[in-house]
Structure formats: structure tokens, C-alpha cells
Write a structure and sequence with these properties.
Elements (H helix, E strand, L loop, with lengths): L6 E4 L5 E5 L4 E2 L6 H11 L10 E5 L5 H13 L3 E6 L6 H7 L6 H9 L9 E5 L2 E6 L13 E6 L13 H10 E9 L4 H9 L3 E6 L6 E6 L4
Parallel strand pairs: 4-5, 4-8, 5-7, 8-9
Antiparallel strand pairs: 1-2, 2-3, 6-7, 9-11, 10-11
Helix pairs in contact: 1-2, 5-6
Length: 224
């Protein structure tokens, strides 16, 4: 666990994120954490229109992408399977501090089960058609599902701060976790990330970025 609690900050769209002492940058966009979650990940992956999304997230962080996804599927009344990997879980008080507004029961249940020691066992939860599994282990060596995810949120800390997550080898493994037609979405538009996605056999496309970034990426696995 981190040696000190991250500092919580309010971003311009009113949502909150926090600064990670370990990585020296914010968990979510300083220009709008909730806006980035919706634009880059929920909408960028097509999850907002999928009738039964299965999401794999790299870097659960403070749960902003999960909460944005839950808000969308709850509004549409569709089921959700969500599996995430988090190597360095933040203190539960920080997760409580960044969340506000209409909180789904599965989020409340997660806070009650959030680990206080490391290493931690996976957390499995379900409520109202939403299932959540979080693995507290290193994604670079973890056993990943194959041909499963309709959407993959690649949301680790930046390639300069956390380069291990963005290597061609890891990206190739992530690509194999996508179901045919599945979409990987990420806020990074770095050239080496785009090349790694392309080398993994994905159709990589630039999109307009969320506030504060000119571009982001989506990468599609060919339909079976």
C-alpha cells in the first residue's frame, strides 16, 4: 500500500481525482476526470451503446472509469461484467473522497470490501445486473481472459511514469483478451503506443482527446 494518502484535487468539470505519490502524477485527468472517463473510455470503446458490455480495465485506480460505466449501463438498464487489475490500491478513504453524487450499491459494497493490506485477494461483487471483479496483482504477469472483452480500458499511469504497462509484449497480451470486434481505448496517443497496438494486429484509430489532450486512441480487433 502507498506510504501516504494521495492528495485529492477537484477538476474543472467538478469531479475529483488524486495525486499519486508513487507515480508522481494524477490518477485521472486534471482537466476533468469524469469527462475523460466518459469520452475516452465509455464512449471511445463503444460501451455506451453495447447491449451487454464486458469490460477489462488496466489500472482501476480510484474507480472513475468504473463509476462512469456503471452510470451508463444503469441508465440504459443493461447488464455489465467488469474485470479490473490494480497493482497499487489507493487507501479506501481516497476512493470515498473522490466519489460523489448518485452512487450505485455495487460501489458501496466495494468500499466495504476494499483491501487494507497487501497482498490482497481478488474482490468479487454483484448487484442489479452488474458484476465486478478486481485483481490486485501486476497486469504484466497476470493470467488474462482470452477473446473475452468487448471493451478494454488501458488506463495505467503514463508511459513515461509506468512504462512496463505499455510495452509491445503487454499490449499484445491485452489484444488477445479482446473478443472479436472488441475495442481497446486509451488516453495515450504516444507514437510507440500506437505502433504497439498496430503490431498487435489491431486497427488503431486516432480520436479527438478529452480536455487537455489533442488526441486519444481506440484500437479495434477484427471481427471473427
Amino acid at each position: 500500500m502507498p506510504s501516504e494518502d494521495p492528495t485529492i484535487i477537484t477538476t474543472p468539470d467538478g469531479s475529483r481525482t488524486a495525486l499519486s505519490a508513487r507515480y508522481g502524477e494524477a490518477y485521472g485527468s486534471r482537466h476533468g476526470a469524469a469527462t475523460q472517463a466518459r469520452h475516452v473510455f465509455v464512449e471511445g470503446s463503444g460501451t455506451h451503446t453495447h447491449p451487454a458490455p464486458r469490460v477489462l480495465e488496466v489500472g482501476f485506480g480510484l474507480g472513475v472509469n468504473f463509476r462512469a460505466t456503471v452510470q451508463d449501463v444503469a441508465r440504459r438498464g443493461v447488464p455489465l461484467e467488469y474485470v479490473a487489475w490494480e497493482f497499487d490500491p489507493a487507501p479506501v478513504d481516497v476512493l470515498r473522497g473522490v466519489a460523489d453524487g448518485d452512487i450505485h450499491p455495487v460501489w458501496t459494497a466495494l468500499l466495504e470490501r476494499w483491501p487494507t493490506t497487501a497482498p490482497a485477494e481478488p474482490v468479487h461483487l454483484g448487484s442489479g445486473g452488474i458484476t465486478l471483479t478486481i485483481h490486485f496483482e501486476d497486469i504484466t504477469t497476470a493470467a488474462l481472459p482470452q477473446d473475452w472483452a468487448t471493451a478494454l480500458y488501458l488506463d495505467g499511469f503514463s508511459p513515461t511514469r509506468n512504462p512496463e504497462v505499455w510495452t509491445p509484449e503487454v499490449v499484445a497480451r491485452l489484444a488477445q483478451a479482446l473478443a472479436p470486434g472488441g475495442v481497446l481505448a486509451t488516453y495515450s496517443a504516444a507514437g510507440h503506443v500506437r505502433r504497439a497496438l498496430t503490431a498487435a494486429g489491431l486497427d488503431t484509430q486516432r480520436r479527438p482527446g478529452a480536455p487537455g489532450k489533442r488526441e486519444c486512441l481506440r484500437a479495434v480487433r477484427a471481427p471473427g
